[in-house]
Amino acid sequence: MHSSSILRAACIQLTATNDMDANCAHAEGLMRQAIAQGARFLALPENAFFMRGSDKDAPAPYTVEEHPGVRLCQSLAKAHGVWVLIGSIFVPAPPHYDGAPPKWFNRTVVINAAGEIAALYDKIHLFDAMVGGDQHYRESDRIQYGEHLAQVPTPWGRMGLTICYDMRFPHLYRDLAKAGATLFAAPAAFTYVTGKAHWHVLLRARAIETGSFILAPGQCGHHPGGRRTYGHSLIVGPWGDILAEASEETPEVLVADLDMAQVAQMRRDLPCLQHDRAYKTTEDFSI
């Protein structure tokens, strides 16, 4: 594949369940649709191949290399010469102490056009929150925090890797942009309540602040255990413009052409990444 300033990218919107085989088959069909539309970079959402139906559900303890979803994506990437971002899979985390309850990393996997694993990222910010007054989420009860920023060089520029709740932490995006990222992945399984209120404004703000493109593939619809996700997968431009948007309830393929030269132009015209200044605080002010 030759480098180009134009990237035809696809966000794959899914309604994943706790049946990994069914999820893999469904994702494969949608990825093949994206490839048929000429997409060269395919982005899948968070929890792409497994969505818990209850606290009793646990993903199979695959390593990254053994994971059937990863192997599927490697095969498609190599056969068609495309890049694939798996928004996240669950990978067992080592216990912190003897007898510690099992935890998992919520891990992004990026696969290059040769079918090789090009980058991994473990979700840093975990969703421990009360939603809608009665929906209590404690992601940290079963997920281990990631500790490292991650980005990956692609033929179209460096991509910063984030997952879902990370988008509420603008310094993460700013640090990645200052380190060279011109394109961000923000795969998600956003709750319906928070998505309806915050999804569009958060993603547009992160794009504007960094002068970057953002690919945000999401889960959609109703899942086992009564969970509902927001859908509305987005592809956002560096001016904060929405280039493509998916529906709320329906799995689908979202495709847009990204002119990566717009990032350099935006950052020249509005160089806010260069305008950070140190500031002083008073004695009674602490962070």
CATH class: Alpha Beta
Taking the sheet with the most strands, its summary is: 6 strands, mixed
Shape: globular
Domain count, please report it. Answer: 1
What is the CATH H-level superfamily? Carbon-nitrogen hydrolase
Number of strands: 16
Share of residues in strands: 25-35%
CATH level 3 topology: Nitrilase/N-carbamoyl-D-aminoacid amidohydrolase
Give your account of this protein's structure:
It is a single chain. With 287 residues, this protein is an alpha/beta fold. The chain has one domain (6-274): Carbon-nitrogen hydrolase (Nitrilase/N-carbamoyl-D-aminoacid amidohydrolase, 4-Layer Sandwich), CATH 3.60.110. The chain contains five helices and 16 strands. Helix 1 runs parallel beside helix 2 (68-80). The N and C termini lie far apart (47 Å). The mean pLDDT is 94.
Could you provide a short overview of the structure?
The protein is of the alpha/beta class and 287 residues long.
Spell out the key features of this protein.
287 residues; Nitrilase/N-carbamoyl-D-aminoacid amidohydrolase; 6-stranded mixed beta sheet; 5 helices
